[in-house]
Design a protein that fits this description.
Chain lengths: 231, 278
């Protein structure tokens, strides 16, 4: 980690910086949502998106370990339970999440956007969102048979969620049928809770309950999938 | 007690029967070579025994612990060196070994002491803080062996440990393997280099198409074939004839018009004879 942190932080900064410049800064203070500038609206969305993508990124690390470096065999042959292994990988995902969210907060300060960044509701939603997607990442990484499959999963699962889960625009502006579909996505609930927290409000408990239930389901599936990785 | 006991182990991959019900025992302290051509089922056996692959049926125990029902206890008792160099290339030699020690629940002080001891043992003490990606193939192999020994396992599984290494480095690895065995570790070695098995092993199992066709000491297997061999090259085919006594072989040679070689029978002859019969 200490040897990779510079690269990691740099790579974590690129996308949010571009989004802030392209969508936020360029729009100026003219566009407002519920009294907030677009930059103020965007930053919680980026935090939510980044906590999802960085948590899910551990699937790539796992696959590199499985298919390229073969280090995964080292874990399979070690006297550790599936629970310990999955918990270790999910913790690695959460470390990435905390790091990437911190990067966005620093960028937020640099862009002069003042929000309640230390709000406990914001951070608990961030951690739960990370837990959901890191657990999903471990499960899927165990099932794929190649690195190409993994890339395809990211394109079909993560990319649509990154753009549709209330990150860049308010879900309420969509037609009712689309809103109903989008409320099925875990990131929508994470984005809602993170944004509420960042604006200093208390989010409804429903969002947290949905994230906890989904996280536990994906964690349990990941535990089962570790055995599937043995041929 | 057997270090490894395998009963009627089978593995099927869709239409391919990789292991057809093999049974064998490895005794404590011995160096057991598992010999066969590529695709015979050597790696499949080692992968099942070490928990990397699921068996289709049959049973196996490591130091008396069932490989599936008591997998954690079984795993505490062995070290594994895979055919691939499965090290984290971006970590140093020390860090790779340290992570392994943590996986086995070793305390920090204990890990440090053992890593330093082992790096001396495999002659890599001066490379402790070198990134693995900067090491040569032979050095990386020695790191994988040291790593597998960190938790002082009773059995060491070595899956083709010298494949791809040049002759000089191969002999260095052989000496290291012998040294490890001499200190009481049971060695289970898979190889397709017959001379490696002949040089190192106390007992050899010949594997062919998922079946064990013979298990014995290299010398017994050689004795069953004969003591002397005559290779005769006729046009473009090489035929080998085996004899109990040198005199018989010399008499045979005296009638030959073609070029020949008279030599001692080796384990490769025993293997080829058994393949011919099976």
């Amino acid at each position: 980690m200490k040897r990779r942190i510079k690269r990691l932080v740099l790579s974590m900064s690129v996308s949010p910086l571009l989004y802030l410049i392209a969508f936020g800064y360029a729009m100026g203070n003219e566009v407002k949502f519920n009294g907030h500038t677009y930059l103020e609206f965007l930053i919680p969305g980026l935090i939510s998106m980044s906590s999802m993508t960085q948590a899910f990124a551990i699937s790539t690390d796992i696959n590199v370990a499985r298919f390229y470096w073969h280090i995964f065999e080292e874990f399979q042959a070690a006297p550790i339970s599936n629970f310990s292994y999955v918990l270790g990988e999910v913790s690695a995902g959460l470390t990435r999440v905390v790091l990437s969210v911190s990067v966005i907060i620093v960028l937020g300060f640099l862009f002069g956007v003042k929000l309640d960044y230390l709000n406990p509701f914001l951070w608990s939603a961030v951690i739960l969102n990370g837990f959901v997607f890191a657990s999903l990442a471990v499960g899927l990484a165990m099932l794929v048979k190649s690195h190409a499959d993994q890339t395809m999963l990211s394109s079909f699962v993560i990319t649509p969620m990154a753009f549709l889960g209330g990150t860049f625009f308010p879900v309420e502006r969509l037609p009712i049928w689309a809103q109903k579909l989008i409320y099925l996505l875990p990131i929508t609930h994470a984005t809602y809770a993170i944004r509420k927290g960042a604006f200093g409000f208390i989010p409804t408990i429903k969002s947290y309950i949905i994230l906890i239930i989904l996280g536990l389901i994906f964690f349990f599936i990941a535990l089962k999938c570790v055995n599937q990785a043995r041929d | 007690m057997s270090a490894v006991k395998v009963i009627n182990l089978k593995k099927r991959y869709k239409d391919i029967e990789a292991l057809k019900g093999i049974s064998f025992e490895v005794y404590e302290g011995e160096l057991f070579a598992y010999l066969g051509p590529n695709g015979a089922g050597k790696t499949t056996t080692i992968r099942i025994l070490t928990g990397l692959t699921r068996k289709t049926s049959g049973d196996a125990w490591i130091m008396g612990f069932h490989i599936e029902k008591e997998s954690i206890k079984a795993k505490m008792n062995f070290g594994l060196v895979m055919q691939n160099i499965n090290l984290d290339q971006e970590l140093t030699v020390y860090e790779n070994l340290d992570i392994h020690g943590r996986l086995y629940g070793m305390k920090k002080k204990e890990r440090k002491k053992k890593i330093e001891e082992l790096l001396e043992y495999v002659d890599l003490a001066d490379r402790k803080h070198t990134l693995v990606k900067e090491l040569s193939g032979g050095m990386k192999r020695r790191v994988t062996i040291a790593r597998a020994m960190i938790h002082s396992p009773k059995i060491l599984f070595l899956d083709e440990p010298t494949v791809g290494l040049d002759a000089n480095i191969r002999r260095r690895i052989w000496a290291l393997i012998k040294k490890i065995q001499s200190e009481g570790t049971t060695i289970f070695l898979t190889t397709h280099y017959i001379e490696e098995a002949e040089f190192l092993a106390d007992r050899v199992a010949f594997l062919r198409k998922g079946e064990i066709i013979a298990i014995d000491s290299p010398q017994s297997l050689i004795n069953k074939t004969g003591q002397w061999a005559v290779d005769i090259l006729k046009k473009d085919t090489l035929k080998t004839f085996y004899f109990k006594e040198r005199k018989e072989a010399e008499n045979f040679i005296s009638d030959q018009l073609e070029s020949y070689t008279l030599r001692r029978v080796n384990l490769e002859d025993a293997f080829l004879q058994l393949i011919g019969k099976s």
